[in-house]
Specification:
The complex is a heterodimer.
Chain A lengths: L1 H38 L11 H38 L2 H6 L14 H33 L2 H14 L4 H19 L8 H25 L3 H8 L5 H12 L1 H17 L2 H6 L17 H10 L7 H30 L5
Helix pairs in contact in A: 1-2, 1-10, 1-13, 2-13, 4-7, 4-10, 5-7, 6-7, 7-10, 8-9, 10-13, 12-13
Chain B lengths: L1 E12 L2 E12 L3 E5 L6 H8 L9 E9 L2 E2 L7 H7 E4 L10 H11 L5 H14 L3 H4 L12 H13 L5 E5 L7 H14 L4 E5 L3 H7 L2 E6 L2 E7 H6 L4 H7 L5
Classes of the chains: A mainly alpha, B alpha/beta.
Bound molecules: adenosine-5'-diphosphate and magnesium ion.
The site of magnesium ion (MG) has 3 residues of chain B, from helix 1.
Chain lengths: 338, 250
């Protein structure tokens, strides 16, 4: 959920700048048109803005507005309900309390317990997906020949389209039993299995997007390095990856955002015990899984339990937003332009 | 003294026969110009001298190319080391998206040089040898992409010189540059000749005549004539050479 919002946010920024460009270009065209009409009517004809153009443009504009307005709506609701939540619970106890028990007495509202669950899953998934995904991308773009690439790329894209509920049951019924052979004391619901499978889920995305970034690095740069006596690995590590860094970071951020926002796998495989722990063998609850849990139960509209959903949602939103900021900074810091 | 010898070299791109029975010798510390119309195989030939053709799928090569009496296509040749000893400068300047310093130091670093002082020294030497030092000595940490096209090309030459090659291959190094940058690079090539063996592809007849000692005329994958530049330009023995130089085709 939050990840979608993160992406939407970036998308909106894009749309915003694109629209500015369109508007600017349009005024320029129009003034140029008027000008030429006066000077040389025979050679340069006035540009006609025909009806079709206008209709298409309006429809596209409305489409852009729909997504903007929806997002504004979502953020507004989130904000209002969150503010009302903080009338009942102090921000201080929200951030420092180590227990999260809003559904039974004594009530505790310590987000850290859910946060640690989400972090555990996200870090675990990233440890699986980022290095493997990057290596897969390097293999595909620098080592694999065209035939291999043509087979593997579509497979990656299919993998990225598997419904997450399938991954959830894969975690619960396949990975967890396997892991319990190694860790016999581990419970059925645990962060380890869920984070490995979330990692597997986001891996194709990292591989595919990073590969896109690497393939678009000009061949002439590779040739420059090969001609100096670089090996394939050196070319990949010292030329291609640095030049594609910004695209690689983008793929990492998207993947991490998806891991934080991932709901189904963690609801099914990680358990429902909010717990401030960094032990992956324990059962935990993530922010998303908590939202599912509460949303499925019957809670009263306007009750404090109801408001917790929004406070948690807001936390997710802020988190993905921060990750995006860090990514922007990283991109600027290590930018290599070609 | 010849440093490179070609013996009946044939090269195929899949089925396309791009080099046909190429033989000849390239003299040490001389400038050899390769001329001929587009698509006649000059770049292909140049790439076969440092095995850059290995990077292209479907390339097959027959015959022998000896560099310092070693067949470079022998199975136990260390290709990276070969390319280190035979530098290459491309048609379009292709500096890495890194700083000026890191561009020049790139080759030394991948070949294991870590010592900062040594690197500084070689970077300075190479930039001086490429006649670029005075222009960039205060902006070594700045991105190479801020330089002009001509400066970028001299940077690429410095980058190639930094790993101390013996031979320098240049594929139309001035065709993307303005006349002033071209003149600078030609002058530089004249200087480099004292220390390096240079093989240069050029489309510019005047350039070939001005700077080279020997000239090879390529046509449709064959070497039609390979002789001193003097002879090729003033008394060619093949009618086609004469026609090409006179600008009657190509
Ligand atoms: N990578 C390649 N794959 C297939 N054919 C190629 C490739 N590079 C060059 N050729 C072909 O080989 C011939 C010689 O090309 P090239 O060496 O680039 O000529 P020149 O440098 O003299 O213009 C041309 O017919 C060209 O189409
Ligand atoms: Mg060429």
């Amino acid at each position: 959920m939050a990840s979608i919002r993160g992406v939407t946010f970036l998308f909106l920024k894009e749309v915003g700048t694109k629209m500015n460009e369109v508007v600017l270009k349009d005024t320029r065209n129009r003034s140029a048109g008027n000008h030429s009409q006066k000077e040389t009517p025979g050679i340069v004809q006035k540009k006609r803005m025909n009806r079709e153009d206008l209709i298409v443009k309006s429809i596209l504009f409305l489409c852009a507005m729909v997504s903007i307005l929806t997002t504004i709506g979502i953020v507004a609701v989130l904000l209002v309900e969150t503010l009302s939540f903080f009338k009942d619970v102090s921000l201080f106890s929200f951030l420092t309390d180590t227990k999260w028990t809003p559904l039974f007495k004594p009530e505790h509202f310590g987000i850290l317990s859910l946060l640690s669950g989400s972090l555990l899953i996200t870090v675990g998934a990233s440890l699986v997906a980022l290095p493997l995904g990057l290596m897969a991308a390097i293999y595909l773009s620098e080592y694999a020949d065209d035939r291999v690439r043509r087979v593997i790329k579509p497979i990656l894209e299919v993998l990225a389209g598997i419904p997450t509920i399938v991954y959830g049951y894969f975690a619960l019924t396949f990975v967890t039993p396997l892991l319990r052979v190694i860790f016999p004391d581990m419970g059925v619901f645990n962060a380890l299995s869920a984070s490995i499978v979330v990692g597997i889920m986001i891996l194709p995305m990292v591989a595919s997007l990073s590969e896109d970034a690497m393939v678009s690095v000009p061949k002439s740069l590779r040739n420059g390095a090969y001609a100096l006596g670089a090996t394939r690995l050196e070319v990949a590590r010292k030329v291609v990856v640095p030049a594609a860094f910004s695209g690689i970071i983008s793929s990492f951020v998207l993947a991490i955002s998806r891991a934080i926002g991932e709901t189904m796998i963690v609801t099914i495989a990680a358990g429902a015990t909010p717990k401030l722990t960094l032990n992956p063998l324990e059962s935990v609850q993530t922010m998303t899984a908590y939202i599912v849990q509460v949303s499925l139960g019957d809670i009263q509209h306007g009750s404090i339990e109801y408001k917790t959903i929004f406070a948690v949602g807001m936390t997710l939103f802020v988190l993905t937003f921060l990750i995006n900021l860090i990514a922007q900074w990283l991109k600027r810091r290590f930018k290599e332009e070609y | 003294m010849s440093i490179i010898q070609m013996k009946n070299v044939d090269l195929y791109y899949d089925k396309h026969h791009a080099l046909k029975n190429i033989s000849g010798e390239i003299k040490e510390r001389s400038i050899t110009a390769l001329i001929g119309p587009s698509g006649c195989g000059k770049s292909t030939f140049l790439r076969s001298l440092n095995r850059m053709n290995d990077m292209i799928q479907g390339v097959r090569i027959e015959g022998e190319i000896l560099v310092a009496d070693q067949n470079i296509y022998h199975a136990d040749v260390n290709v990276e080391n070969l390319r280190k000893n035979i530098g290459m400068v491309f048609q379009q300047p292709n500096p890495f998206p890194k700083s000026i310093y890191d561009n020049v130091a790139f080759g030394m670093r991948i070949h294991g040089m870590r010592d900062r002082k040594e690197l500084d020294e070689v970077v300075e030497q190479s930039l001086k040898a490429a006649a670029l030092w005075d222009e960039v000595k205060d902006i070594l940490k700045k991105p190479a992409y801020g330089l002009s096209g001509g400066q970028q090309q001299r940077l690429c030459i410095a980058r190639a010189l930094a790993v101390h090659p013996q031979i320098l291959l240049m594929d139309e190094p001035t065709s993307a540059l303005d006349p002033i940058s071209t003149a600078k690079i030609e002058e530089l090539i004249g200087e480099l000749r004292k220390q390096y063996t240079i093989v240069i592809v050029t489309h510019n007849m005047q350039q070939a005549a001005r700077i080279s000692d020997d000239t090879a005329f390529f046509l449709q994958g064959e070497i039609i004539e390979f002789d001193t530049t003097e002879k090729i330009f003033h008394a060619p023995s093949d009618q086609r050479t004469e026609d090409y130089i006179a600008g009657r085709f190509g």
